[in-house]
Write a sequence for this structure.
C-alpha cells in the first residue's frame, strides 16, 4: 500500500499537525498578551519619569508670608505647583533675610500644565493658562526634568507632588512583620510534618487544613484580620502591624508547602547516615537536613514574600488604603502599601494620576520580577541531583 | 503602661535572663567535667536547657493572660503581669540550675521541648482556620438575625442602602425597605468566572499539552517560567490594565459591530482574569499529563496512531481527573479574585445574561461594604461577612472535591 498518497492517512497527518499548532497558538497567545501588557504599562508609565518645571519670578515680600499666592504674578499662580507655593511662608519665616528680594527660579509646574506640555488629551488646563504656558515655552521658561519627587515624596492630593516613598516604606514595614512571623512558624510546621509527625489523625487534619488554607481567597484573610486583629484584639486599624499579621497568615501555607517540598528532596540516606554515627533525630535534621534544604526554603520564602508584597484585597479590608502623605515611623501608625497606593491613585479622576499609577505599577513589577528572578536563580544554582 | 511598652520590657527582660541562664548552666556543666567524669550531653545543651526553661513557662503565662484579657474575662495590671513573668522566669532559671548534675540528660530534655515547640507551630494553621471560620460565622449569624436566610439566598434585589435604619431601630418609619437578595451578585460572579474559564481552559490546557508532549526540555524550561510570570503579576495591576486598557477596547469593539457596551462591562475583567488563571490551569495540567505512564503512550503509538490521536484518545482521558481538579482550583481562584473586579467590574447588582453590561460580584460587594464609612454593626457591613461565608464554603467545597479527585488519580497510577 502506498502510504504517501493514502488520502485517509494524509488527513490524519494534517489533523496531527493542526493539533500541534493549537498548542503553539495557545502559547503564542499567552506570550503576546505578556508582550502587549508590558509594552502598554511601560508606555503609560514613561511620561511620569519626566515632570514639567517652569521658570518664574518670585517676590519674597512680607505679604507672601500671610498669603503665599502673592509671591508670584497673578497669571503664574495656577501654573506653578501649589505644593511649592505652600512651602514659601515657612521658608521666609525661617530666613527673614530673604524678605524684600526676588529671584528667578525653576519650580515644579502644576499637574495640568505638566499634562498640557506632554501633549496629553484631557489635560484640563484652561485656555487662559494655556496661552501663558505657550508664552513661557517660547521664552524657554519651561523644561522637562527627571521626576525625582516621585521617588522621595509621599502621597499627595496634588498629582505633581505625589510620590511612592511613604507607601514603599509602609510595604517594607508590613513585609518585615510578615516574614518575622510567617517564616519561623512556617518552617517549624513543615519540619514537624515532614520529619517528626506520627502518622495519625491529627497530622492528617493539619495536612488537609494547610492545603485548604492555601486555596482560601485572600479577601477572606482580610475579613479575619478585621474581625479578629482589629475588632477583637484592638490592633490599630490601617496600621502596618495589622497588615503584617494578616499577610503573615496568608503567606504561612505557601511557606509551609514549599518548605515541605524542599525537605522532601533531601534523600533519606542523609538522615540515616547522620543517625548511623549516633546523631539524634533532631541533630540529624538541624545539622544535615536543614542546611541541605536551605536554598529550597529560601526560594519558597522569597516567592511567598513576593506574593505578600503584591497583595491588595485583604489590606483594603483592614483599611490600608488610607491617605498617607508622610511615611509612618512606627508599626502602630496608619500606613499604606505600594499596591494599595496604586489602587487609590487609579481611582483618582485627575488625568495626571493615571501615569503615576502606571509608574507605581512599573516600580512594583520591577521589584516583584527581580524577587522572582532571585528565587529562580537560587533554585537553579542549588539544583542538586543525588 | 502601653501594650507595646509591656511587650518590649517583657521580651527584653526575658531575653536577658535566658542569656544569663544559658551561660550559668553551661558553666556549671563544664565545671562538673573533670578527669574521668563525662557528661551525657555536650555543654551547650545544658545552656539551652536553661534558656528554654526561662523562656517557655514565662511566655506561656504571658500569652494566657493576654488571651484572658482579649476575652474580657480578667485583666491583670501590666506591672503585675511583668513582675509575675519575671518571677516565673527566675524560678525556671533556678530549677534548671538545680537539675544540672552528672546524671542529667540535657539533650533529651532540650529535644523534648523543641519537639513541643514544633508541634505548637503546627497547630497554628488549625488556629487560623478556626479564626477564619469564626470571624465570618459570628458576624453572619448577626446578619441572619435581621435578614432571613431564605431572602438572602433567593432574593433577586440587592438594595441595602437603607439598612442603617434597622441598626438605628427606625425600621418602622416607613422608609424604603432594604433588600438583601444575593442572586444578582452571584449571577455576576458566575458570569465573570465563566468568561475567565472560557479563556483559561483552552489556552491553559493546550499550552500544557504542548509543553509536556511536544516541546523539548530546553524549550519547556524557558516557556514555563514565562507563563508563570502571568501568575506573579499582582492583581491590582491586572485590575488597572483591565479598567484602563481592555475595557475601552471592548467598548470600541462592541460599538464597531453595533452593540452597546458599558465601561464597567463584565467581559474585560473576565478576559483578564482568564489570562491571570492560565498558569494555574497549565502547570497543574502539565503535572498530571506528565504523570501519565509512558507505557500508555507507547502502546497507543505502536498501534499506529498519530501523536495527536494518542494524546486525544489515550493521554487526555487518563489525565482527565487531574485536569478536572485543575479546572476546579482555577474556578475557585476566579470566584475569590477581588482586585480585578473591584477595579474593572461594576458596582450595580445586575441580573442579566449580557456580558457587555456592568455586573457586580461577591468580592466587590464585600470590599464596598467594608471600606465605606458605615457603622460596623449595620446590616450593610454584616452582609459582607455573610457573602464571605458563602465564598468560604464554595472555595472549600471546590478544593475538597479537587483534592479527592487528584488522590483517586494518583492511586490509579502509583
Amino acid at each position: 500500500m502506498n502510504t504517501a498518497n493514502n488520502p485517509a492517512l494524509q488527513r490524519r497527518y494534517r489533523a496531527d499537525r493542526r493539533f500541534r499548532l493549537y498548542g503553539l497558538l495557545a502559547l503564542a497567545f499567552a506570550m503576546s498578551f505578556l508582550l502587549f501588557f508590558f509594552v502598554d504599562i511601560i508606555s503609560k508609565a514613561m511620561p511620569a519619569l519626566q515632570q514639567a518645571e517652569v521658570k518664574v519670578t518670585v517676590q519674597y515680600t512680607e505679604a507672601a508670608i500671610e498669603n503665599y499666592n502673592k509671591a508670584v504674578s497673578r497669571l503664574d499662580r495656577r501654573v506653578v505647583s501649589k505644593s511649592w507655593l505652600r512651602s514659601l511662608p515657612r521658608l521666609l519665616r525661617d530666613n527673614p533675610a530673604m524678605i524684600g528680594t526676588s529671584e528667578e527660579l525653576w519650580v515644579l509646574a502644576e499637574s495640568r500644565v505638566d499634562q498640557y506640555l506632554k501633549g496629553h488629551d484631557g489635560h484640563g488646563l484652561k485656555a487662559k493658562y494655556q496661552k501663558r504656558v505657550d508664552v513661557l515655552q517660547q521664552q524657554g521658561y519651561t523644561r522637562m526634568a527627571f521626576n525625582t519627587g516621585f521617588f522621595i515624596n509621599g502621597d499627595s492630593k496634588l498629582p505633581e507632588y505625589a510620590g511612592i516613598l511613604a507607601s514603599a516604606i509602609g510595604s517594607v514595614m508590613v513585609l518585615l512583620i510578615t516574614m518575622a512571623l510567617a517564616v519561623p512558624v512556617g518552617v517549624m510546621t513543615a519540619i514537624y510534618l515532614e520529619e517528626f509527625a506520627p502518622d495519625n489523625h491529627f497530622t492528617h487534619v493539619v495536612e488537609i487544613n494547610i492545603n485548604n488554607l492555601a486555596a482560601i481567597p485572600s479577601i477572606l484573610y482580610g475579613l479575619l484580620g478585621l474581625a479578629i486583629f482589629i475588632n477583637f484584639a484592638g490592633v490599630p486599624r490601617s496600621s502596618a502591624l495589622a497588615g503584617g499579621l494578616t499577610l503573615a497568615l496568608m503567606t504561612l501555607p505557601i511557606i509551609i508547602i514549599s518548605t515541605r517540598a524542599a525537605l522532601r528532596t533531601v534523600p533519606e540516606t542523609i538522615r540515616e547516615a547522620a543517625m548511623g554515627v549516633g546523631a539524634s533525630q533532631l541533630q540529624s535534621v538541624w545539622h544535615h537536613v536543614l542546611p541541605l534544604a536551605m536554598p529550597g526554603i529560601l526560594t519558597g520564602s522569597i516567592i511567598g514574600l513576593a506574593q505578600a508584597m503584591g497583595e491588595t484585597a485583604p489590606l483594603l479590608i483592614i483599611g490600608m488604603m488610607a491617605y498617607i502623605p508622610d511615611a509612618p515611623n512606627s508599626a502602630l501608625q496608619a500606613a499604606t502599601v505600594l499596591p494599595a497606593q496604586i489602587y487609590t491613585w487609579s481611582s483618582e479622576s485627575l488625568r495626571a494620576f493615571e501615569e503615576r499609577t502606571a509608574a507605581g505599577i512599573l516600580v512594583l513589577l520591577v521589584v516583584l520580577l527581580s524577587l522572582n528572578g532571585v528565587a529562580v536563580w537560587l533554585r537553579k544554582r542549588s539544583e542538586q541531583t543525588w | 503602661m502601653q501594650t507595646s511598652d509591656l511587650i518590649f520590657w517583657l521580651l527584653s527582660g526575658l531575653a536577658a535572663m535566658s542569656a544569663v541562664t544559658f551561660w550559668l548552666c553551661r558553666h556549671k556543666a563544664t565545671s562538673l567535667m573533670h578527669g574521668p567524669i563525662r557528661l551525657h550531653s555536650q555543654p551547650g545543651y545544658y545552656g539551652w536547657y536553661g534558656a528554654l526553661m526561662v523562656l517557655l513557662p514565662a511566655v506561656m503565662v504571658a500569652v494566657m493572660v493576654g488571651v484572658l484579657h482579649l476575652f474580657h474575662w480578667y485583666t491583670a495590671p501590666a506591672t503585675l503581669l511583668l513582675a509575675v513573668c519575671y518571677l516565673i522566669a527566675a524560678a525556671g532559671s533556678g530549677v534548671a540550675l538545680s537539675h544540672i548534675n552528672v546524671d542529667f540528660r540535657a539533650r533529651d530534655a532540650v529535644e523534648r521541648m523543641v519537639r513541643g515547640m514544633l508541634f505548637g507551630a503546627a497547630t497554628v494553621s488549625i488556629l487560623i482556620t478556626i479564626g477564619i471560620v469564626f470571624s465570618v460565622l459570628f458576624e453572619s449569624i448577626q446578619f441572619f438575625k435581621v435578614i432571613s436566610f431564605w431572602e438572602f439566598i433567593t432574593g433577586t434585589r440587592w438594595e441595602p442602602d437603607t439598612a442603617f435604619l434597622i441598626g438605628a431601630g427606625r425600621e418602622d418609619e416607613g422608609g424604603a425597605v432594604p433588600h438583601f437578595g444575593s442572586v444578582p451578585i452571584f449571577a455576576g460572579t458566575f458570569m465573570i468566572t465563566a468568561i475567565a474559564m472560557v479563556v483559561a481552559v483552552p489556552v491553559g490546557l493546550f499550552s500544557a499539552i504542548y509543553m509536556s508532549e511536544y516541546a523539548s526540555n530546553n524549550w519547556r524550561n524557558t516557556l514555563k517560567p514565562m507563563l508563570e510570570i502571568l501568575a506573579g503579576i499582582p492583581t491590582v495591576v491586572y485590575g488597572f490594565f483591565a479598567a484602563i486598557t481592555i475595557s475601552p477596547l471592548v467598548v470600541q469593539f462592541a460599538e464597531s459591530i453595533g452593540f452597546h457596551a458599558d465601561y464597567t462591562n463584565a467581559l474585560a475583567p473576565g478576559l483578564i482574569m482568564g489570562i491571570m488563571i492560565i498558569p494555574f490551569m497549565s502547570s497543574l495540567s502539565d503535572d498530571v499529563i506528565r504523570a501519565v505512564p509512558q507505557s500508555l503512550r507507547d502502546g497507543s503509538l505502536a498501534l499506529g496512531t498519530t501523536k495527536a490521536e494518542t494524546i486525544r484518545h489515550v493521554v487526555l482521558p487518563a489525565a482527565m481527573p487531574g485536569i478536572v481538579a485543575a479546572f476546579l482550583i482555577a474556578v475557585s481562584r476566579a470566584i475569590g479574585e477581588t482586585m480585578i473586579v473591584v477595579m474593572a467590574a461594576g458596582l450595580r447588582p445586575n441580573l442579566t445574561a449580557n456580558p457587555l453590561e456592568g455586573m457586580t460580584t461577591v468580592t466587590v460587594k464585600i470590599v464596598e461594604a467594608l471600606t465605606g464609612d458605615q457603622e460596623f454593626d449595620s446590616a450593610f457591613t454584616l452582609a459582607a461577612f455573610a457573602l464571605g461565608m458563602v465564598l468560604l464554603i464554595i472555595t472549600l467545597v471546590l478544593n475538597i472535591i479537587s483534592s479527592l479527585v487528584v488522590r483517586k488519580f494518583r492511586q490509579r497510577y502509583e
